Amino acid sequence: MWKLSYNNKNRGFTLIELLVTIGIIGIIAGISTVAVSKIKGANNQTTCISNLRSISQGLQMYYNDYMTFPEDGYPDNGDDIYPLSTELASYIRDKSTFICPEDNDTTSTGSFASYDPYYVARKGSYDSNELALGCPRHRGAKNSTTAFSTGSTEIMSIGSVTVSGQELPPDGTTAQRTISSQGEKMTFDDGSTVEIKNNSGGSYGCFLVQSVRLADGTLYSIVRVQDNGTIDVQVTTGSKFEVVTPSAIVGVRGTHFTVATNSNGSEIGYQTVVSLTTGIVVVTDRETGDISTLKTGGTTSKTTGNMAPHSHYHTHEKGERHMHDHPSQNQAHHGKAQSGTDDDGSSADPGDITICHKPGTNGEKTMVISASALSGHLGHGDSVGACP
Questions:
Q1: Which of 4, 145, 215, 304 is 20 to 30 A from residue 131's alpha carbon, by CA?
Q2: What's the total number of domains in the chain?
Q3: Rounded to an integer, what is the distance from CA 198 to the centroid of its chain?
């Protein structure tokens, strides 16, 4: 009788088979992780696009009511103590709209201010194709989701900006995006440069707002300057560049010029002096909307502060609304924090902290802020405790 032999019936995997199997599982897991990460990143960017569109609509509704846009500069400019989430509270009820899902800065998210550092207020209704609002946190800070003043939203690649060979993080804190010492220079992807020539005020700041590639490949860069000092700007031909000051927006394409800002004390207001070496510069007065075009050798000065009053509607904390004269657009805060909130727009609570804002400068004042906002204020020179 024939009998079958099963001598190898219980033979297991060989070492090589096990290694191959483990390797295949590892590859599949790696591919899955990358795929999940890309899907999450895409979803977050989609949410960010939706947020920017909602904020753009809120800005337009705000303009329709007040014939001006909320101030820009928060948190880089200590004179602007209200984030967009506070100034647009009457139009956008869901404060999560003001938080990018890729924002990991607890100070920024705690103040509902993910987008404020990348917002530029412009005089007049949104009818030109200029950068208005952005978010450079996506794809490892290599992509910016940006809203234009026309209301359109695009995803653009970010151009690198370096200082002394070190790249500035486009999504960094105020301190990380700032140069303040005489001789410090920002160098942009296209070779354009911004150098501090004078920081006579001692607290001068030049902040990177955005530097992105438009659809046609043009590099579009924006910096903001604050307090007393002078910057020397050289822009590579063909690139688009803007310098935003409290009183003017200086727009150029390939030119060389200087911008000097001076706070001049609260009784006079901010002054911006633009001196052109070569090329053409277009200077927009942020108070009146007037435009000056400078050609080689030209100089212009723009001042804002306690100027001729303008009329607008003003809404008080309890909802009362009336027309009155206001001394300056840049000092007007419409849609201010409701009662029960701190000076920084956050909800009041027992843990609030009293600070001296901008000590030793013309803008010095005592403020009450939430504990979560303290690190941001300390980062630009404020101190704990009331001003002297």
A1: 304
A2: 2
A3: 24
Q: Give the DSSP per-residue string, 296-313.
A: TT-EEEEEESS-S-EEEE
Last-in-domain residue among 307, 326, 356: 307
Res 137 pLDDT > 80: yes
Domain containing 379 equals: 340-384
- Name, in order, each residue with C-beta under 8 angstroms of 319's C-beta and a sequence gap of 6 or more: none
Residue-wise pLDDT tens digits, 227-261: 889 999 999 999 999 999 988 999 998 999 999 98
**Mean pLDDT within 348-370:** 71
Nearest residue to 294 via CA among 331, 256, 337: 256
Q: Please name every residue paired with 125 in a beta bridge, in sequence order, or none if there are none.
A: none
Q: Which of 343, 329, 309, 336 is nearest to 246 (CA)?
A: 329
Neighbours of 283 (CB within 10 A): 27
Residue 292 vs residues 194, 241, 300: alpha-carbon distances, Å: 22, 16, 8
286 falls in which pLDDT band (50, 70, 90)?
confident
Whether 190 is in a domain gets the answer yes
Closest CA to 85 of 93, 77, 233: 93
User: Contact 170/134 with Cβ under 8 angstroms?
Assistant: no
Q: Are residues 172 and 283 in the same domain?
A: yes
The conformation of residue 169, written as its DSSP 8-state character, comes to P
Angle at the Cα of 375 from the Cα atoms of 170 and 383, rounded to 5 degrees: 125
Please check whether residues 369 and 251 belong to one and the same domain. no
> 300 and 353 share a domain?
no
Check which CATH number belongs to the domain holding 226 and give it.
2.60.120.1440
pLDDT, mean over the chain? 79
CA–CA dist 244, 56 (Å, integer): 20
**Radius of gyration in angstroms for the set of CA atoms belonging to the chain, rounded to a whole number:** 26
Q: Token pair of 24, please? A: 């295949």
Give rounded-to-5 percent helix, strand, coil for the chain: 20, 35, 45
**182 contacts 83 by C-beta, under 8 angstroms:** no
User: Residue 231 corresponds to which tokens in the numbers above?
Assistant: 């910057």
Element (H, E) at 25: helix 15-66
